[in-house]
Amino acid sequence: MTARTLRKRLGLLLFVTGYLVAVYWVFTRSQPVVEGDVTTIRIAHWQIELGPPDGIEAAIKRYEELNPKVRVKQVMVPGPVYRQWMRANFAGDNAPDIVEYGAWLDGLADLPVRYFEPLTEELLEPNAYNDGTALAGMPWQETFADELQEQRINSPEPGQYYAVTMTRGSLRLFCNLDLLEEITGSRVPPADWAEMRILFQQTAEYAAKEGRIVTPFAGSKDNAMWMMGFYMGGVMNTVGQQLDTDAMLGLYPRQSQWMYLKGAWHYQDPAVKAALALLKEINDQMRPGYMSLLRDEATRQFLRSESLFIFTGTWDATSLRRLAEFDVGVLRCPQPTQDDPVVGKYMLGHFSDGNNMTGFGFYLNKRSPHRKIAVDFLRFLTSYEGNKLFTDHSGWLPSIKTVPVAPEIASYISPDDGYAYGGPNISLGGGSRAIFESNLHHMVGPQGSVDKLAEALDEAMPAVTREALQVEQRAARWAMLPQDTRIVALANLTVQLAEPDAQALRRERLESAQNLSEGRALLLARQLEIVDQR
Amino acid sequence: MPRSYPVIGTLLLGFALAVTGGATEDSASLDSVWNFAANSQPIEARVALKKVDGVDERTRLLARAILDLARPPIAEGDWQKIEPVLAQLAQGDDEIAAQALYLHARMYQVHKSVPDYPRAEALYRELARRWPGSHWAQLGYVKLGLFKLFSVREPQDARVRLQQVGVLLAEIQEPSLRRDLQLQMGWAGLFYELPYDEVLPPLIAAEAVGGMMGITPEDLTTQIGELSFRAGRLEQAKYYFENFLEAYPSNTRRFNVSQRLTEVRAALAKSEAAP
What's the predicted TM-score (pTM) here? Predict the structure, then answer.
């Protein structure tokens, strides 16, 4: 072999070896060669009304200025497809790092413990982005206006915090004040449900006289269900109080489900039927066929002055105010009183129309490859500065203490002046809302009646309610199972780390959370067993 | 072949070796394994465990077993793999053995698709016999108490059921574990519709320990106040309702509580005014 040939072969060998090593590198290592590259995280939500995306974007912009090596991408998913989108993306391991979720989303109760990571440890520490503000040094959790009450109630794992929240909200009746004046000669809204009934009549007369469509309430399935749920909840406080055998002065959905399944109440009970009669009045003041419409259509009816009111949450307030060409009044909902002929004898008193619990909760994807950055971004988003940017640009209430509330949105905050027992309602969790929706036709039209609806609900609800209780049971069980690993791991860390007290406290909390989940799972399992024996 | 090939090849190889050489897998510490496991990152923990050098076999086996338990449900094949390991580790006489025995009991109690409560109970009792007073024995008693409260069929009499759990409670010294079991005893008493006077003591005892997380302390304070009201212990009801309103300014049931407190105060005033 000549030196030339040898050189050729050696060169070829080196080239091939280099190539193979490069291939090995590409297929076995996902990290970039050069450290310090820009990291991109994604944050997904369904708040695509006017306002919130601007608020989030403003906070992102500032965060990226503070952290030039991070990019945050806002993923906006329309509400109607959000549930399917979530399930598909988590199942496919393609979900964003941070995801909005709500415990009230039907049929998703199993998601949190499977796919979200608790933030409890971080929330017990101060948020460094609050340094230099009045919130400096305060544990992150305590900086929220409600100290994350929603999480304390709805956490899939008792004792654990899974989310941080962005805003507060309440339910309001938004009024076309110009139209109100045209109809009644006054801009003063009704004070109670009796005055509402008078207004319903006046509106009908006005529409007939003007020869155009004007209904008291803008109608769509979404708005109708919110409104019916709100009013039914108000009337049901007395029943809720009677069903409160656990003496908690309120009922969680799992307790209402259990009481229904054990036969402690029925839709055919007189008090519940009275509430359904009130819902019929609401139904009759919306455009026929509203159940086939979505909330956007209700908004359009309101904006076209085809309805006097739209019942919705303050989450729609920015959109309504920016788009309406008339004065929009934001009213607390007129309520039936104790002398109301339909529901009066069942009214406990004035009921709550907004609990000021914070919401718009962001959860951390358990499988996020950028956990540290994602948590850091959440810290900024819910810091004084981040939340102020959000509220200033979105027109939504802030969730963080000391962040100023603009005068025009101050009325969204409800005073603490109403009962909130929970209990029987149009939805009992799980897929029960769909059952109500699909049976509502029994109450409407010339042949419809409250009796028919109540009977149909008592026929269809038990199965779906049992399913909902079972989901609660499974969620508690799923929350509890993986904790054995964490508890034993922490026990071993206690031995090896310099701060044994902190580790011991952490383990104690974890054990306590597991005991709570486990107790709940076992109690619910027992209840299900009893239901099945009936 | 151009003359530059050997040069390019050498450069490429040198670059690749430099890069891969720099990224040679670091050895991990056992702490990082426990840390990942404690933070719900079992996959990362498993990777770290592979890199740990110099760890004794028992520790490694325990770590593997707990990581296998981290992603429920456990398949039948995994059960066959994990169970004998825990049983074998439990034969020892060290902390690892106690932990393994505890986990062994947990497997029969909650990780098996159909729980085997008698087997779990036997293992918890063995744990208490071999390591009396240890944390694992006490935690085991809490778990045993939980399924005795809600899951087993006998005894039918709820009062006897709670008395049996009370015997377990007497073996537990750690305040936080006593609290957790007392809380469940109170809630079980409500579920079985025992008289308020029998339900209140364990709830009051649990509340006195404090340190609970989430919504539980708020619910519990309300509960004690309301149960006291229903039992006619008005002063006690007043005490807990007032505590609640002071301690939980953002609770959504404040209005309900404040209305009830008004009733309690009125009833107290009436009883004081009575001759």
Answer: 0.85
